[in-house]
């Protein structure tokens, strides 16, 4: 199975789906050019609404991790591996910053001041 959801995870389901796919890309379980199963099939495997999966897939497309092509389905983008690692690290950094009371704007300001 490509990914699994965790019922005890407080994140919304679409975030879990997107995070699971980012991780699969970063770990090399799916590679650039690989085709994903149709959203309907993925939703059935995960026992979630197809719209939940579609929302996650659109988010990953907007991050340039996935490519939607008519007639070819959804594929992993060519530059996805490195981008997935950085995106996942950025999300983890944002979570960590929030844990210590920093807002997203403050975190961005910190990053902009890096040498």
UniProtKB/TrEMBL annotation:
It comes from the Bacteria. Keywords: DNA-binding, Pyridoxal phosphate, Transcription, Transcription regulation. GO terms for molecular function: DNA binding; DNA-binding transcription factor activity. CDD domains: WHTH_GntR. Gene3D superfamilies: Winged helix-like DNA-binding domain superfamily/Winged helix DNA-binding domain. The keyword Hydrolase does not apply. InterPro entries: HTH_trans_reg/aminotransferase, Tscrpt_reg_HTH_GntR, WH-like_DNA-bd_sf, WH_DNA-bd_sf. Residues 11-79 form the HTH gntR-type domain. PANTHER family: HTH-TYPE TRANSCRIPTIONAL REGULATORY PROTEIN GABR. This is GntR family transcriptional regulator. It comes from Stackebrandtia endophytica.
């Amino acid at each position: 199975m490509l990914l699994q959801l965790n019922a005890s995870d407080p994140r919304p389901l679409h975030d879990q789906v997107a995070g699971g796919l980012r991780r699969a890309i970063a770990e090399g379980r799916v590679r650039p050019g690989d085709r994903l199963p149709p959203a309907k099939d993925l939703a059935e495997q995960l026992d979630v609404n197809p719209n939940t999966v579609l929302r996650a897939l659109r988010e990953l497309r907007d991050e340039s991790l996935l490519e939607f092509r008519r007639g070819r389905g959804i594929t992993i983008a060519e530059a996805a591996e490195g981008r997935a690692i950085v995106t996942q690290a950025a999300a983890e950094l944002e979570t960590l910053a929030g844990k210590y009371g920093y807002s997203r704007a403050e975190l961005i300001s910190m990053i902009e001041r890096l040498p």
